[in-house]
C-alpha cells in the first residue's frame, strides 16, 4: 500500500494499481518501441508489485502509531515475502519477466540486507 496523507483524509494506492499505471506509462516509452523484450518488460512492469495483492486487499493499521501500514512499514516477514509471491505469479507467463520482478524486489530493500533481522538472524548470532 502506498499511503498519502491528505489534509483530512488518506489516499491509499495499492501496489498493483501503482504497477498497472507504471505499465500504462511505459507502453508509450520510445525506448521500448521495437525492443525485442518489450512484451516481457511491460509484463514485469505491470506485475512488479503483484506480490502485495493480499496485503493491499485489506489495509492494516499499526496499533502503536495509528498509521496505515504501507509497503515500507509492513512487518518484516511481509516485506520479505512479497517479491517471491510476485515472481511466482509472473514465472508461469515469462521467466524473463519473473527475473525482472525478482531484481525489483532485491533493489527495493537492498539497503536492509546488512541488517541481521533482514537476514533472519538475531544480533547475538552474528
Describe this structure in words.
With 126 residues, this protein is mainly α. It is 48% helix and 6% strand. It is built from 6 helices and 2 strands. The protein has helices at residues 15-26, 38-47, 53-57, 76-91, 95-108, 116-119; strands at 2-5, 10-13. A two-stranded antiparallel ribbon has the order 1-2. The longest helix is centred in the middle third of the chain and has 16 residues, at 76-91. Residues 121-126 have low confidence and may be disordered.
Write the layout of secondary structure elements.
Layout: E1 2-5, E2 10-13, H1 15-26, H2 38-47, H3 53-57, H4 76-91, H5 95-108, H6 116-119
Antiparallel strand pairs: 1-2
Helix pairs in contact: 1-2, 2-5, 4-5
Amino acid at each position: 500500500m502506498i499511503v498519502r496523507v491528505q489534509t483530512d483524509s488518506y489516499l491509499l494506492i495499492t501496489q498493483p494499481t501503482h504497477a498497472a499505471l507504471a505499465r500504462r506509462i511505459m507502453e508509450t516509452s520510445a525506448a521500448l518501441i521495437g525492443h525485442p523484450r518489450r512484451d516481457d518488460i511491460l509484463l514485469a512492469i505491470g506485475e512488479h508489485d503483484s506480490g502485495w495483492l493480499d496485503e493491499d486487499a485489506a489495509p492494516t493499521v499499526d496499533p502503536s502509531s495509528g498509521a496505515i501500514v504501507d509497503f515500507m512499514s509492513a512487518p518484516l516477514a511481509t516485506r520479505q515475502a512479497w517479491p517471491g509471491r510476485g515472481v511466482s505469479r509472473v514465472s508461469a507467463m515469462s521467466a524473463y519477466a519473473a527475473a525482472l520482478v525478482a531484481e525489483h524486489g532485491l533493489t527495493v530493500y537492498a539497503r536492509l540486507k546488512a541488517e541481521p533481522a533482514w537476514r533472519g538472524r538475531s544480533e547475538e548470532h552474528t
